[in-house]
Design goal:
This is Arsenate reductase ArsC. Keywords: Arsenical resistance. It comes from Mycobacterium hippophais. It holds the Pfam family LMWPc. With about 220 residues, the chain is an alpha/beta fold. The chain has 2 domains: about 15-80, Helicase, Ruva Protein, domain 3 (Orthogonal Bundle), CATH 1.10.8.1060; about 90-215, Rossmann fold, CATH 3.40.50. About 45% of the residues lie in helices and about 10% in strands. It has helices spanning about 15-35, 40-55, 65-80, 100-115, 135-140, 155-160, 195-215, and strands at about 90-95, 120-125, 165-170, 180-185. Helix 4 links the parallel strand 1 (about 90-95) and strand 2 (about 120-125). The chain is globular, with a radius of gyration of 17 Å. About 45% of the residues are buried.
């Protein structure tokens, strides 16, 4: 099942600070995307992104920023899908069940190695509420900080904008669109594991990411 973005009005239970933060976020997004999309589209994406996190976020004051980051990613994806902007960089989407461990480690390695030469996103079929602490610790041992990431769903435009979709155990819930390159990485789910058990999974992911970058002919940062 793919999570569709539908028009959402701003929730009536928002605090004044949250409303102001969302309005400020909308202004920033409109400035960045005004040449591609109308105000209504931009605000719809921002508000529906907010709804994706509203019922499971542990820090409500962080929600508007979270929504802005996700909306920005989705608008970039939509711009690519609609042919309004395409920088030619390979785009990879990493998907797992909770978007809290495997896909986040893959995203961390990919972004670290590829830098600005390629684009990577991640998502989950049943997004969790936080990144797996053992995954954060294991990646920190490699000098990569994924603590600022957050579990999120995928949306139609994000999947359609990806050149390669890497799935990790989300099974039938993983979205399928014609024309995408799909690859299943069979990896143990690190949920509930300690750092010691997560290390072999992390190392396997690193190896696979390096191989993927080589296949995409993306130069790897040391």
């Amino acid at each position: 099942m793919v999570h569709n973005a539908t028009h959402q009005h701003v929730r009536s239970d928002l605090s004044i600070d949250q409303r102001l933060a969302l309005k400020t976020a909308a202004t920033r997004l409109e400035k960045d995307f005004e040449e591609m999309f109308g105000v209504e589209t931009i605000e719809r994406f921002l508000h529906s992104s907010y709804e994706q996190f509203a019922n499971r976020a542990s820090i409500p004051n962080f929600l508007p920023l979270l929504a802005e980051r996700f909306a920005r990613q989705r608008l970039r994806a939509l711009a690519k899908v609609e042919g309004k902007h395409n920088d030619g960089k390979p785009t990879v989407l990493f998907l797992c069940t909770h978007n809290a461990g495997r896909s986040q480690m893959a995203l961390g390695f990919f972004t670290h190695f590829a830098g600005d030469a390629a684009v990577a996103w991640s998502g989950g079929s049943e997004p969790g509420t936080e990144i797996n602490p053992a995954a954060i610790a294991a990646m920190a041992e490699r000098g990569i900080d994924i603590s600022g990431e957050y579990p999120k769903p995928w949306t139609d435009e994000i999947v359609q904008a990806a050149d390669v979709v890497i799935t990790m155990g989300c099974g039938d819930a993983c979205p399928v669109f014609p024309g995408r390159r799909y690859e299943e990485w069979k990896l143990d789910d690190p949920a509930g594991m300690g750092v010691e058990a997560v290390r072999p999974i992390r190392d396997d992911i690193e190896r696979r990411v390096r191989e993927l970058l080589a296949e995409l002919e993306v130069p790897v940062n040391a």
